[in-house]
UniProtKB/TrEMBL annotation:
Origin superkingdom: Bacteria
Organism: Falsiroseomonas oleicola
Protein name as annotated: NAD(P)H-dependent oxidoreductase
Coiled coil ranges: none
InterPro entries assigned: Flavodoxin_fold, NAD(P)H_dehydrogenase_qn
UniProt keyword Oxidoreductase, yes or no: yes
Any Pfam family the entry gives: Flavodoxin_2
Flavodoxin-like fold domain location: 1-185
Keywords: Oxidoreductase
Amino acid sequence: MRVLYLYAHPLEESFHAAIRDAAREGLRQAGHSVDLCDLYAEGFDPVLSAAERRGYHEVPANRAPVEDYVRRLEQAEALVLSFPTWCFGLPAILKGWMDRVLLPGVSFRLEAGVAKPNLLHIRKIAGISTYGRPRWTAVLAGDPPRKAVTRYLRIITAGRARIDYHALYDMNRASDQRRAAFLARVQGQMARF
């Protein structure tokens, strides 16, 4: 499959860079083609401008400011979102990508004012994240990142995409052994993606 890999971490030396590399190796082992979209390295601007918001419903002109990202999404058959959880949310750059790229006419269509799923070509989705705190605190906060991946993306794919979510909780206290085990698990899951 053609996999669009959305990577959202600013530090090349981060544990997330190791996650990215392990995941891409697993995808390579499975024979998938990977389009790495490193949002920070590409200088993606997460801010939805006033002009973009005014033209939000003007299909197809609404895609012009982010046309390359829309094209990459439309060419993909699968998505992987790889990100740290910060303040129990998605990093601003990834949330901004969703705000600016998952547009009317792209991820959904409006029919008589009702949003209908439009990412029907996406067959598989995986979210890969780390949390600084234990799982129970994420549950207490409602775990918005998990819901964004497993619920929102399910809606805009009309429930057709198989969705997996891989998380390393309590990252601030994770031992080298636990981090290595997570990398191995991610690589193995991606090799079966």
